[in-house]
Amino acid sequence: MAYQKPTCECGEELIYWTQKGYTEESKILKSGKIAKRPYHVYGNEMLVWDRLKCNRCYGEYHIEHDSSGRVIRGEKWDS
Ligand SMILES: [Zn+2]
Known about the structure:
Low-confidence stretches: none
Mean pLDDT: 91
Number of domains: 1
Bound molecules: zinc ion
Distance between the termini: 33 Å
C-alpha cells in the first residue's frame, strides 16, 4: 500500500514536532550567586517530547509507526 503522509482531522498535513533538552550543573560561588558558566553539561540531544502537530488547528497526535517503520498518526493528544 502506498504511504500516505499523516494528516490532521482538519485535513492539514501534520509536522513532526520535537523538544530537546539538556542538563547543566553549576557551582554556587562564595558570593552566593550561581556561577554563570556551568561546570558540567550533558544530555545535549536528549529527547524530551515529540509528537505530530497541526499548524492550522493546533491538533496534536502521538507518533506511531507502521510495519515498515514509516510515521503514521496515532491517538489524539489530550492536553
Ligand atoms: Zn488540524
